[in-house]
Amino acid sequence: MRSPTFSSEPAILAQGLSKQYDFYRQPQGLRGALRSLISRELTSVRAVVGLDLTVERGEIIGLLGPNGAGKTTIVKMMSGLLEPSTGQLRVCGYRPAARSYPFLSQISVIFGQKAMLWWDVSTRESLKIHRSMYEIPRDEFAATVGELGELLGITEILDTPVRNLSLGQRMRCELALALLHRPTLLFADEPTIGLDVQAKLVVRTLFREINRAFGTTIVLTSHDMSDVEALAERVVIVTGGRATFDGDLAGLRARANLQKAAVFTYHDGRVERVPLGHEAIGALVQAAAQSGELVDFRVVEPGLDEVMSKVFSERPVRS
Amino acid sequence: MSTHAARRTGSVFCGLLRQELQTIAQYRWWLVAMQASVVVVPLISLLVWRGAMANGAEPPVTRDYLTTYLVLVSVVTMLTSSWTARFLAESIRLGHLNAWLVRPCSTHLVAVTNNVSEKLAKLATLLPLIVVLAVPYHRDLELPAHPGRWLLFLWALALGATMMFCFDVIVGSLAFWWDDVAAVDRFRQLAAAFLSGALIPLSVMPTAWGPFLQVQPFGYAVAFPIQTLLAPDAATLWTGLAMQAAWVLLALVAARFVWVRGLRRYSGAGA
Question: What is the pLDDT of residue B233?
Fold first, then answer.
């Protein structure tokens, strides 16, 4: 298999990156619609504001944020779909908006909600088109398809028309298409959407494997916190178009400052959850034992979902 | 474009063409029905004109010219037509363009292969219908025997198809600015149908319209390619070839300009 070309330049280098969308406001009701025939109100929304971000080659980062935070706009700018309004952006050493062949042949984008596969033909036919597009030698193509087919469990369905695949099967085939050319940089937007638990595990293992073996940089946007927990060494939280946190998961937990909890399970089936403060554990257990026959006791960390929810709620006002 | 890039594009084109033909094969009955409808308009025109001439009408062209023109017009119209605008506008509006913009390949290549593959398939279904149409009128058909004239015809067809495809890209790209380009597309199709000679041969239109008909572009998509087969004089032929080349060049430049400017406004709706 081909391995990506390496350079000392970071995979992603963004300085003061901003994106502003201009659109006409849609007035309410019939009267508003008629009024808009004569005069329309132009509105601007700053989706991304002054983003500074450096992603080194070989990193896996989670780009996270609530809906409408601006993370998809950031990914779109980084993959060359959108031209930034202001600021500097270099991805794999290129200006993405120029959409040059050397740039586009190094990246791959997985849109969880949008298909890259051709709908009316089989996955194998789509893979063949990508073989020509990315100039993959025939023997390497055969080996990679075999390997990805086995890893993703799609060997049996490679010749089935895509429209006849289930959502989970289609997502796995989408992954095979995205990884065929061994991208240097992978943008994965909700890559496990629609997959069952086992398939999710396969995808995460595959991402870790290509990151380890080929040094592929992965930018992950996902609302599935188990994806983030399993893959991302670093998370960047985007709220209101700004990066409000950049660090590892331990740092994020510390930032959220959520308490651990003691969970007591009684013989009669009751489960009680007590937030942990500065009380001595022994005293808590003694107190719990007095209210029933205790059969289990655990100290639990707050879930990443709770942590995210807390951090997202610290939303800055969008300008 | 370097030789290497041209070879790569050619390889992708062949792959996409194979795929498009596979898809078309799944919708073969739609294709036959559509081509049958394509033949109906020139057939009606042919019957009307021949009926009118039998009753004493004197058009400015001969019966042989008119018969040959109307037998050929459905094939030429099909081969030079383009239907990309609506699909392009939809992919801009709904963000489906994203899937193409992140690939190292021209976004328009898939539309070109869709056009070429459908034309190949349509030709296979249309030609037998044309032969059936031509049989009763074969004595009035005037087709050249010289291969050079047929090569010239193919050249004019290719340029006509390129020009119409560029117009389609221009109209479709307006979706970068406007939510709905259907009205513009409908107007363009109407103008093309009337001014290209697809409905009525340009040579039977009022003489006073002559100067306008000669400079407008649509005539170079249908009427002019047929004209190359119908023994035009050398001056008319060379003027026509120069005018057609100029329109194609202008259309290519305009399509590229609108596309590049439009991409800067693209918002890639959805994920």
Answer: 81
ipTM over 0.95: no
Q: What is the pLDDT of residues B234-260, one digit of tens each?
A: 888 899 999 999 999 999 999 999 999
**Can you give the residue range of the structural domain that contains B116?**
3-263
Q: What is the mean pLDDT of residues B47-54?
A: 81
Q: Is A156 exposed, middle or buried (0-12, 13-18, 19+ CB in 10 A)?
A: exposed
User: For residue B241, what are its two tokens?
Assistant: 């070839």
Nearest-Cα distance to chain A for B23, in Å, is 6
When CB atoms are compared, the residue of B11, B14, B19 closest to A121 is B19
Average pLDDT over residues A55-81: 91
Q: Which of these, A166, A191, A168, A167, lies nearest to A179 by C-alpha position?
A: A191
Q: How far is B102 from chain A, CA to nearest CA, in Å? A: 6
| Mutual angle of helices B109-134 and B28-54, in 10-degree steps | 50
Domains and CATH numbers, chain A: 12-254 (3.40.50.300), 259-301 (no CATH)
The nearest alpha carbon in chain B to A191 belongs to B271
Choose the mutation target among B102, B114, B177, B265 for the interface with A, i.e. most A CBs under 10 Å: B102
**Per-range mean pLDDT, top range of A52-56, B118-122, B123-127:** A52-56
Domain membership of residue B82 (yes or no) is: yes
- d(C-alpha A104, C-alpha A98), whole Å: 10
Q: Is the pLDDT confidence value at A281 over 70?
A: yes
- Residue count (chain A): 319
Q: Is A133–B12 a contact, with Cβ atoms under 8 angstroms apart?
A: yes
Give domain status of residue B53, yes or no.
yes
| Region of residue A68 (left: phi > 0; alpha: psi -120 to 50; beta: else) | left
Please tell me if residue B235 touches chain A, with a CB cutoff of 8 Å: no
Residue A244 has phi, psi (to 5 degrees) of -100, -10
**Domain total in chain B:** 1
Evaluate whether residue B268 is within a structural domain.
no
* Confidence check: pLDDT of A86 > 50: yes
